[in-house]
Amino acid sequence: MNVTNKKWPDDYFFAERKKVLAMWPTGKEVDLDEAVAYHKKMPKTRNAALKDWEAKEKGVTYLWPSLGTDSLAAHKELLLYMQEEGEVDFLTSYIDSLTRNCRFKEAEEELNKGKKTGKAVLNGFPIVIHGVRGCREVVDAVALPVIFMGPTPDARLTHEIALAGGHTGYSGGPLISFWNYTKDIPIEQIIHNYQYTHRLMGYYEEKEAALLYCVSGAMPSISPPSLMIAPEIIEVLIAAEQGVKHIRLNGWGQGNIVQDIAYIRTFEELTRQYLDKFGYNDVRTTTYSVNPTGRFPTDPDRVFALIAYFTLVGVLARVQGLGSRTIDEAHHIPTKEGTAQSFRCARMLINMLGPQKLDILDLQAVNTESDFIKREVKAILDKVLEMGDGDVITGTKRAVDVGILDQPYATSQLVQGRVMGVKDHEGAARFFDFGNLPFEHDIKEFHRQKICRRQEQIGKQVDYDTVIKDLTAISEGGILPLS
């Protein structure tokens, strides 16, 4: 498959649409022109792209939960509960894992099982099974913007139905789907699928129906920020070429305040540089942060501290959007009550910090961290573009093959998987193994010196055992292992 970063011609796009809409019977419900008209009649207060941009103009931080359950009645109840009790500003439909993998028949069977027993079997909202009419029943029942979420190698039919059904944005992307949600699907095939979804979103934009695309890049595993920013900027460039105009940049918090803030601010600056470099001057970007993935504490009291901590980081970094894990995350699929409690905690902290103008962005430590992040990201992306003769998709394929683009603990077997992170003496993520990343000597020395400080602190060599302990440190009570 020869995939390049060129905007799809209309004839190719519409030919592909016929195949996609035939994947499941509910595809017949999609009428693209009618869907565009439906979006344009929607109040601006229910449009995720416009409301997200409003946050930037007002200088405020809005709250984004991650929600999804199986039946129409249950999902509607969940969203209404969060709207009324969770004090959030946006709502989401998180897609179940069967739908994410286009196993629509099985998703339908599991949905029916849940209806019979009264207990949810699916771990999300099966958008394709509910169809356009079902999605609109949910979206029209709430007053807040609703987007759908879920990295997947093939979200094409889900996009068609979700957007026609009134969702005004999507969170996911080709790189995070490749690294973290596949085993042996080639990256160019996943990118091709996302070119379809991006071209679909671009079509809505061309008809003056704004949509928000939330890039994800890569899931952190003690990952220095450049490992996450580089793939996210690639996702941004792929989306922009197909006509996407409103993009939210996802910052994954990992716990060190200085590094997390530098990551968020540097990410936005670099994204603007690369968008302008390729002529995508009319693409708007906003920032978002969320607390880390991985194991969470089982004690709700400790989780409340984490929710407050990462809310603090997001507000200090002046993000427009803030997500959060929940107090019952470690035990089961989060309940609506636990989710609402978690976001009320975040809301309280936002209300406390919002009026205060704290200039932490100008700290020397933040600037130093930012400078190294910029150099690392540029080293990776410029090498990707060089390998692709200026084409970011061609370069991405080649860079993955040789490890210029790499991730620790990726599920894909098509990844080199040589890079690895470890925490320094202050809990910031540093490179334990650089793999084949194209960094200059002084960048590598910066990371090594930070790790040496950690070795002095603990009185022994930082090794693989240290890495493993670091991976579970937050779940056990601190940014660094307590013993």
What is the strand and helix layout of this fold?
Layout: H1 10-21, H2 32-41, H3 48-58, E1 62-64, H4 72-85, E2 91-94, H5 97-100, H6 104-117, H7 127-139, E3 146-149, H8 156-164, E4 169-171, H9 174-181, H10 187-206, E5 212-214, H11 226-241, E6 246-252, H12 257-277, E7 284-290, H13 300-316, E8 321-323, H14 336-353, H15 364-387, H16 392-402, E9 420-423, E10 429-433, H17 441-458, H18 464-471
Parallel strand pairs: 1-8, 2-3, 3-4, 4-5, 5-6, 6-7, 7-8
Antiparallel strand pairs: 9-10
Helix pairs in contact: 4-7, 4-14, 7-8, 8-10, 9-10, 11-12, 11-15, 12-15, 13-14, 15-16
Structure notes:
The chain is of the alpha/beta class. It has a single domain (10-361), classed as TIM Barrel. It contains 18 helices and 10 strands. The strands form 2 sheets. An 8-stranded parallel sheet has the order 1-8-7-6-5-4-3-2. Helix 11 runs parallel beside helix 12 (257-277) and helix 12 (257-277) packs across helix 15. The model has no long low-confidence stretch (mean pLDDT 94).
